[in-house]
Amino acid sequence: MLISFKDKTEIKTGPAELISFLSDAERIARCIPDSKGFARIDDTSFSIIVNLGVGIVRGDFKMEGKVNTISEDRLSYSLSGKGLGSEIRIRLDLAVEGSGNASVLSWSADAELKGVISGVGEGILRGVAKEKIGGIVSNIRGSVEK
Known about the structure:
This protein is 25% helix and 54% strand. The protein is an alpha+beta fold and 146 residues long. The mean pLDDT is 90.
């Protein structure tokens, strides 16, 4: 099953500060609700454990990720992981625009789900994803707007 999302949000910080924050996988990991065990593998690669609860599928997913700088105002994350008889692959593209102390973060994500988790209804999956994404964006905003 493939699910896609996109949105944008205003964040009260300069574009350079925001892109610097978004480029640091460890700082982003701290913004993911129910995550633990972040480990940096090298300058761009990392591993993390994310607790996920979707319908009857509840537990830890061991994920590996990579952050890729595309340009000075665009980057992407690729993540893949397994857990609970399921496999998840995510591609997240981020773009930052703005000036002064005002930025707009635009993002799009594609998530490919295989195994047990793909048997959960799409409406439930979208609801859980919207909640997780909302938590991540809120935590990023709280971290950079200090």
